[in-house]
Sequence to fold (227 residues):
Amino acid sequence: DTGVSQDPRHKITKRGQNVTFRCDPISEHNRLYWYRQTLGQGPEFLTYFQNEAQLEKSRLLSDRFSAERPKGSFSTLEIQRTEQGDSAMYLCASSSGLVNEQFFGPGTRLTVL
Amino acid sequence: AQSVAQPEDQVNVAEGNPLTVKCTYSVSGNPYLFWYVQYPNRGLQFLLKYITGDNLVKGSYGFEAEFNKSQTSFHLKKPSALVSDSALYFCAVRDGRGNNDMRFGAGTRLTVKP
Fold:
């Protein structure tokens, strides 16, 4: 399968712990996006990379959140000192251009107890 | 900032009947419009997009959508619904001026009954 993959698929953690998620985009895609989706809502944009450069960040991305794409391939999203409000599905997507559609991974479901 | 409204939380249709899932948008520049579908325990799948050109765009699985600039709408349609079309549908918009922030609607749950 050459689609977008995310790991882990599910993560349960206790409040205050740090968590890290990984996204592997489609190999030829230079654009990578992170979204957060809560129940009953559409995905909300968090951040965007073009190659290894993080070019846009949403106001939703508090200072507890950090994302990297060190070699312009896979990306990681880290949440420090998790809070119950961080519980959501975290989606990664990639595309090959601004006007092109984004291909989404299956998501990582985070539950903060 | 751009925004999308999907006025119906739920749409119910009988198999074989036409379906419409509504979407209206607000954007400063020219809109790039997208429809995605989400099946249970699956990621979002791309259906179709409007960037420029013909107002009627055709996509996957027999779906189509019509861009209406005057009404700022991009409704999703299918002439004959299948039970397997039952899923959650999301409309999304991006500002054509280059903003990478794509805004999604809250989603419409389509249920097709046999």
